[in-house]
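Reopening this ticket.

The earlier resolution said the output was attached, but the attachment link was broken on my side. Pasting everything inline this time so it's all in one place.
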Amino acid sequence: MSKIKSLFIIAITLFISACNTIYVPPVNDYQPKNQPKVALVIDVSDKLTHTHIGTTIFNNFTKQYEVDVKMKQHIFETLKNKLKEGANADVVLLDKTLSNKRASSGFVFIKDKQWQFNPSLEAERSELTAKGIDVVISITEAQTLVDMYCTQYGCTNFYAEGHGLYTRSFFGLDNYHAAASYEVSAEFISQPIDMGVMESMRDLNSMYGRLTKLDLEDPADHKALDKAFFEPVQTGLTGYFENLGSIINKYLNGEFETSKKK
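Inline output:
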């Protein structure tokens, strides 16, 4: 690798790190509840998507597959069990229409270095808190950045088009990953705290935090995979949601990460 290329990649890495540094206000007055009520909004397909990136753009393709697991229900059960185990949470499922209302904004934001509620969603927040809900977690399947190739001439971004399998082939060398291709938000609505801006959550939902590397045998045809091929993919996605649940458990128990960096 040339010296110029090495310096360029170091510069890109530092730039990405700088972009990930944000100010997180302290959380001083939060009191953990014995049984917090957590509402999940899950807007995902029950199909899994295979996103393949080949040596050239002419080799790229995306294909959906039917699988035995009902992914929406599986995600709900995984998080419900994890949050019950770690924080004694009462977990309920909300209709996905809430995610449409929150498409461009959340319940909580940071202004003047303070946590604040979003006034445009006050009616929805009041309706939920009247039902005893303390936390809303929204999981939406979406195209997400999962890989990047950089040279001294710039960077090429690669995206997973949906949750499932992400494969990258380059001159016959194949890499396989379970791709947790989701937009995830997690907010306290009984008092304004956005868990999504905290370090562990940002790491989990970073470009590489969404990927779980898989050790798979090369299929005879990348465009014709059988259901068994997706079993380790589903296991990888389950691991992602178990990690998500573990992180949220810390916050429900009052173990917050804050940063005073500007």
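Reporter confirms the inline version is readable. Residues 37-253 form one domain. Helices lie at 3-19, 71-87, 97-101, 122-129, 199-204, 231-252.
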